[in-house]
Each structure stands twice: as C-alpha cells, then as structure tokens.
Amino acid sequence: MFYWLIDLSNTVPGLGMFRSALNVFRYITFRTGGAMVTGALFVFMFGPWIIDHLRVRQGKGQPIRTDGPQSHLAKKGTPTMGGLMILSGLLVSTVLWANPLNPYVWIVLAVTLGFGFVGFYDDYLKVTKQTHSGFAGRIRLAIEAVIALAACYALVRLGRDPFSTALVIPFFKDIVLNLGWFFVLFGAFIMVGAGNAVNLTDGLDGLAIVPVMIAAASFGMIAYLAGNAVFSDYLQINYVAGTGELAVLCGAVLGAGLGFLWFNAPPASIFMGDTGSLALGGMLGSIAVAVKHEIVLAVIGGLFVLEAVSVIVQVASFKLTGKRVFRMAPLHHHFEQKGWTEPQIVIRFWIISVMLALAGLSTLKLR
Known about the structure:
Blueprint: H1 5-11, H2 19-22, H3 28-58, H4 83-97, H5 103-129, H6 137-158, E1 166-168, E2 176-178, H7 182-201, H8 209-226, H9 229-235, H10 246-264, H11 273-290, H12 294-300, H13 302-321, H14 331-337, H15 342-362
Antiparallel strand pairs: 1-2
Helix pairs in contact: 3-4, 3-10, 4-5, 4-10, 4-11, 5-6, 5-11, 6-7, 6-11, 7-11, 7-13, 8-10, 8-11, 8-15, 11-12, 12-13, 12-15
C-alpha cells in the first residue's frame, strides 16, 4: 500500500514537494525494513490480547502427550494457535509494505494462509476434543497438496519457458534439469514437505521460530538477488523477474517472528501450534520454488529436514524390524531422553540453523 505513495506524489496536487522523500518507498530494502518493524510492533501490541483471548477460549490449552518427555507435563494449560499472532502480523505488514501488484507476493501469501487454515482447523480439533489427533492425516495432506499444486502451477505459468519448469543444481551454473510439467508435482512436494517438516520441529519453546526466521532472512536475501538483473548476473544465478518483492514478505516474517519469540521464549506463554508451523513451512517452500532454489532450501532448512527424516526412519525401522533407531522421535525428543535440557537443545539447534544457513548462502557464489 505504501508503495503507491510515490505514484500519488506524481498525481495529487500538493504532494509534489514530497516526491524526493517518498521515493524511498520504491526501494525493496527500505520496505523490507519497514515490514520487519511493522510486523514486530503489531505482535508486541496485540500479542497479549491474543494470548488472553486464546487462553479463555481454549480452557485447558494444548493437550500434552503423556507418552512424551515427562518435563512437558508442566506445560499443561498453555494455549496454542500462536501462529495466529505471526500470520496476522505478517499479513498486515506485507499488505502495507509490499507492492500489491506483484503476483509472487499473493501466491506465497495464498500458500501461507491456506496452510495456516489447515493447521488452525487441526489445532481447533485438538483443543476442543482434548486429543493429540486432529483430522485425518491423509485428508490434511490432500488439502495441502491441492493448495501447493495450484500455487506451483501459477508459478510455472508466471515464469519464463522453459526455465519455469527447470530444476537448478547448486554449485553448477550450467546444470539445469528441465522437468517439464512434472515440475508442478515436484514443487508441490517441496511446499508440502517444508510445511510438515517445520511442523515436526515445533516441539520445544522457541525451537521452530528462530530457525524459521533464519531461513526467512536467508531466502529474503536470495529473493532480492534473484529478482535483480544486475546482482543475479554477477552471481551467475538465474534471474527471476519480480521475486525481489518477496524480500518484503520475508522481512515481515522476521518482525512477526521476533514478536512471537518474546512470548514463546521459555517458559512459553503460548505455543505456535500447527497454525503457525504449517503456514511458515509452506511459505518457505513456496518462496524456494518461486526463486528456483528448491535444493538450497534443503540446506538452509537442513534442521527441518533432519527432524522429518528422524520421524521417517523411526517409523520405518519400527514397522520393519520392531526396533527404534532413536530413543524418541522427532530428533529433539531423542536428545531430551539423553539428558539434554530444553534450553541446551533449543540453543544448539539454533546454532546448527545458522551454520546451515551460511552453507546454503555460500552456494550463491560457488558456481
């Protein structure tokens, strides 16, 4: 919305004197900073009201698994659906600061809010029925797949042929695999996989939100570079016109995430819930597909990949051999069972996320 101020200065009498000052709204970097501050302030201002409202409405809060780590039983009564705080701050901030005519922004927002709605309904069933099971997993995955397929199809139609259906291999500037329309399925898999991987990571206070912010900051930089013809040519990465505007959305995520972390820091006043984790994971996946850095997402979001793989390995091993590879899955619960304290796990996982983000960003130059 603020993006239109420069146009108003050219058309509305009396605003011409402010044209040079309003020109800053053309710059993505300025609007990204504005989105970050706005997202943080929104959550700081309305966060306590949202928490109080959810606590009253939910009563007993998120159900705690009795077969999980015993230390988690002390968290009983903590409200969930904290993702509503993040999504509301993200949405308001993005609408205010992003270019409203940019289709990439709306596609990514559609995936984010669509996945968020799926997670919200799942949280709603868990809270109202006081059970760990939301609605059927297959139905949930099917809905996510439909949203992701529609978004990926839109991204393919928006891009340049044949590059829009190509898979770019990091570290190699000349290796590009054209998947044809199979890329729609591949891209949808990335979005759904990212959403559920972040969902599995969200198990300790502050564990998921910081790696999400690190990944969002990394992809905000990638989106800005990929959407700039000069920088993309210098770094020899593929230029995707219009994706630079996604940096503004990533800035909004950073701000809203910081605001949420204020309330989610141990001991958490509210949990993110599936509402936030599915939405933020889907957002990261859709941005990765939009900027043609799907494989880099597996590096930058390597922590989420490890958490998801630990669950897959645990389930497969138990069904095939009757034995468990980990003491408990996802991976963070394994370390809890080994005696690590919750703050130790959270901070060490944050450190791993930073290292993986640096490794992922290094692929921009190593080509």
